[in-house]
Design brief:
The chain contains eleven helices and 26 strands. The protein has 482 residues and is α/β, with parallel strands linked by helices.
Length: 482
């Protein structure tokens, strides 16, 4: 058996998307030796449409606003629209990575096919097999491959005679030309694709198992993430807020949600309600069975279809780590990752990205990356503090619900409250004396509009301060081409 290439003097970061890049910067600032691999040809993760296995499509936009979503040390450009297009996010990520010189730490067009923990008797290492066939042994592994990699495709009785494929394969509305199309699911990608179908398809249908809450992207001209949706006093108050600004989506065929707002990941899309109300898109309930080109639904209705897009999400897995070595599935309450980052059983493995929360700021990724990098550095430089952190990791999971009730069903167990996670991470860093690394010490958080206060005293809205995330003038391509 070939001995692995000994690289136990360094850590491996897998992935050059926003999570992996944040970890890489934090490790570099901490003075930790590391290297990275990326399956694609460039940085960007899911936002680089050319990366293999990516789920990006031409009509995709960021669902959090540019003025709230960047890294604090280099916010998004001030010429970006409120909700940037996919290629603008790709360029922003590339510009930030170039600003910090992070690409030089990565080997591109190189995929990890397998990673396994190795117990040598006195410590743990990780053996990593690459797509080149090379096997390397690392001191530890930080997995940031993106968690939209393993498609979840439901099964129904019967056989569909048309084309059926997962949304991971979808790229352009041109795929719908002269076709009768059904999109199954109602996540943010699903409704984007359903809107494309409403515009481009001969007939467009969206099928969902239940009704959902839809959040407007703008309220009084102010982006939704300027509102304190993660810290409103109750979900009943948030329900009232949505009833005022969105109304009853049951009037366009979606029915009444059976759960409070934010029990699911928020769906930010104004266009789908427009197309439903104009007849360009038809809402159907869950599929019952297939019969050739006929799709039968649980309410007895039918549709004749040519194409089905399964926009039904992904399985939460690290694709190159066997389940027995890292149980992170949101379908399994026996989760190996403390606060969805630190492995309870394998101290030399960590991850960034699997937590699902109603927020999209890269600055929060940098703050989480700082926790990871400080802990890795402590293993050699501050072993007593490292042991203290390990005791926390191996202890009970903190309550990250923020007092909210989340939908506790298979596929939804990794939802956490963004404000609660940010608060807990800051408290943990202060308790342990961790150093700011990728996330600036002088970070000024953006101001939020108090929803409770607005409900008690409705008034015209003004744009709150964006704090350290306020956009600034520059061109990301200048940094990339630099």
């Amino acid at each position: 058996m070939t001995q692995p290439d000994d690289r136990t003097d360094r850590w491996l970061v897998v992935g050059a998307g926003p999570s992996g890049l944040s970890v890489s910067l934090a490790l570099r600032c901490a003075g930790v030796d590391f290297e990275g691999v990326e399956a694609g040809s460039a940085v960007g993760g899911m936002w680089n449409m050319d990366n293999p296995g990516g789920a990006m499509y031409e009509s995709a936009h960021f669902i959090s606003s540019a003025a709230r979503s960047g890294w604090a040390d280099l916010p998004m450009p001030d010429h970006y629209p409120t909700y940037p297009r996919w290629w603008e996010i790709r360029d922003y990520i590339g510009g930030w990575a170039a600003h910090h010189g992070l690409a030089e730490f990565y080997t591109f067009d190189t995929r990890v096919t397998e990673a396994v923990p190795v117990d040598t008797g006195n410590r743990e290492f990780w053996d990593v097999t690459l797509s080149t066939g090379e096997v390397r042994r690392y001191r530890g592994l930080v997995a940031c491959p993106g968690f939209q990699r393993v498609p979840n495709v439901p099964a129904y009785p019967g056989t569909f005679s048309g084309e059926a494929r997962h949304s991971q394969t979808y790229k352009s509305a041109s795929e719908f030309h002269r076709k009768r199309v059904m999109v199954v699911g109602a996540g943010n990608s699903a409704v984007d694709i359903a809107v494309d179908a409403a515009i481009a398809a001969e007939r467009a249908v969206i099928s969902t198992r239940r009704a959902y809450w839809f959040f407007p992207k703008l309220i009084g001209g102010v982006p939704l993430d300027c509102f304190a949706i993660n810290s409103v006093s109750s979900q009943d108050r948030l329900r009232r807020f949505l009833e005022i600004h969105v109304g009853d989506v049951g009037r366009v065929g979606f029915g009444t949600p059976d759960h409070p707002p934010l029990a699911h990941h928020p769906i930010l899309n104004d266009q789908i309600l427009h197309h439903l109300s104009h007849g360009d898109l038809v809402a159907r309930p869950e599929v019952d069975r297939f019969d050739g080109s006929t799709v039968r639904f649980v309410n007895g209705s039918t549709e004749e279809l040519d194409l089905i897009i399964w926009a039904t999400g992904y399985l939460d897995r690290v694709p190159f780590v066997a389940t027995e070595n890292c149980r992170i599935s949101s379908r399994d309450t026996d989760n190996d990752l403390f606060i969805w980052m630190f492995h309870r059983r394998h101290p030399q493995m960590m991850a960034l990205g699997p937590a699902n929360l109603a927020a999209g700021g890269y600055w929060a990724l940098a703050a989480s990356a700082d926790l990871i990098a400080n802990h890795i550095r402590d293993q050699r430089q501050h072993p007593e503090r490292w042991q203290q952190m390990r005791r926390i990791i191996e202890g009970p999971e903190p309550d990250l619900s923020g007092g909210y009730s989340y939908y506790q069903k298979p596929g939804h167990l990794n939802y956490v409250n963004a404000a609660a996670l940010d608060r807990y991470g800051a408290e943990l860093a202060e308790e342990l004396g961790f150093e700011p690394l990728a996330h600036p010490a002088d970070f000024k958080p953006p101001e939020l509009i108090d929803i409770d206060g607005w409900l008690d005293d409705p008034r015209p809205l003004s744009m709150p301060s964006h704090g350290s995330l306020a956009p600034i003038p520059y061109q990301p391509r200048d940094l990339i081409d630099g």
